[in-house]
Write a structure and sequence with these properties.
Layout (H helix, E strand, L loop, with lengths): L2 H9 L19 E11 L5 E9 L2 E3 L5 E5 L4 E6 L2 E8 L2 E10 L2 E11 L1
Antiparallel strand pairs: 1-2, 1-8, 2-3, 4-5, 5-6, 6-7, 7-8
Length: 116
């Protein structure tokens, strides 16, 4: 898996709540988020950065297959191409953990996000 996709995941890695918001409702975390991931174990790239967009509590990223949302309390759960991330947003920043693989070898680390 490409590290950029893992980064997008983590950033996005950052966004799914237990209940999805209605399509017409705005989330307090809507906007553009810069996400940086750092690999702590495994052979994935050491660091990567990606821009994610949250709209109505749903996460998207250009060129990436991202599935995730951010709950109203800031709880993030995201998946992208077999990688998973979770964490917490608070105001304009957040952080959490991610797990994935590169060439079948497990990788994991932390992510940090800031609203732009």
């Amino acid at each position: 898996m490409r590290f950029a996709r893992i980064a997008a995941f983590c950033a996005a890695s950052v966004f799914t709540g237990t209940l999805a918001a209605p399509a017409f409702a705005q989330s307090p975390y809507d906007g553009n988020w810069q996400v940086t991931i750092v690999t702590k174990s495994g052979s994935c790239e050491p660091t990567a950065s990606s821009m994610l967009t949250v709209a109505d509590g749903k996460i998207t990223a250009p060129g990436a297959n991202v599935s995730g949302t951010i709950g109203s309390g800031g709880l993030v759960k995201v998946s992208i191409n077999g990688a998973y991330a979770n964490g917490q947003l608070n105001g304009n920043a957040g952080s959490g953990k991610w797990n994935g693989a590169s060439a079948g070898i497990p990788c994991s680390g932390r992510w940090e996000a800031s609203r732009q």
